Prior knowledge:
The chain is an all-beta fold. It contains no helices and 13 strands.
Amino acid sequence: MTDVNIGSHVCISQGAMLCTGNHNYSSPGFELIARPIIIEDGVWIGAKALVGPGITAFSHSVLTAGSIATKNLDSYGIYQGNPAMLAKTRTIKP
Ligand SMILES: CC(C)(COP(=O)(O)OP(=O)(O)OC[C@H]1O[C@@H](n2cnc3c(N)ncnc32)[C@H](O)[C@@H]1OP(=O)(O)O)[C@@H](O)C(=O)NCCC(=O)NCCS
């Protein structure tokens, strides 16, 4: 079992996948390689987005709908695409 740690005030939208598992494609047996995922406070993972093994979404980052996170998401970054790239910085207005 591999951990997925989710902070507070997090939104994980419909069909998003937090995928901790990988397979070693250099091995004939495709051994499982599992790495934890951390979703910090205030993060939004958009609908049908995928967060890959070992990724940390740092606080208040956003992964837009359908995007694929293969690298960590910096705090307050808005990430888009496959692979997800920094598109904007999030500002939160009260
Ligand atoms: C819908 C979505 C793809 C729009 O992204 P986009 O087409 O790249 O939109 P743009 O970047 O062109 O945005 C146009 C403007 O609207 C704003 N905007 C877009 N989506 C926004 C959102 N969710 N919240 C606030 N502002 C938003 C942008 O900041 C931008 O403002 P600006 O022109 O002042 O910079 C993106 O917001 C997204 O993936 N949202 C998640 C949808 C989802 O998962 N819904 C499930 C709900 S449970």
